[in-house]
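Dear Dr. H.,

I hope your travels went smoothly. While you were away I took the liberty of generating a structure for the chain from your last submission, since the lab meeting agenda had it listed for discussion. I wanted you to have the full record in hand beforehand rather than looking at slides cold. The sequence, exactly as received, is reproduced here:
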Amino acid sequence: MVKVYCYDRCSTCRKALAWLDSNNIKYEKIDIKSQHPDESTLRELHKKSGLPLKRFFNTSGILYREMQLASKLPDMSEDEQFTLLATDGMMVKRPLLVTDDAVIPGFKEAEWKKVLCLD
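The corresponding predicted structure, in token form, is as follows:
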């Protein structure tokens, strides 16, 4: 089953969901603000993704900028970063695509096509 953590007011999330709909891909939509992933889920998703943890941060978000995380993240331990990500769904890069085999933060059509076997 395909899951997509997203935020309704995010234009990239709306674009990604429209793309899924236009490709007839069934998915479970999860509101990242009200049902954000907890720390253990984030750890699993990160491991499954094979990506650097920094890719999971919403670097263009207000909260990220207000907390000046661009300068703080490099000095934080991975445990501290996971704890921080789990505090607020708006901290997590969205949309977050989760399949049985992959996890992709953000919407890049080519990556999503590959993971969803649409090539």
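Two observations you may find useful: The first strand starts at residue 2 and ends at 6. The chain is about 40% helix and 15% strand.

With kind regards,
E. W.
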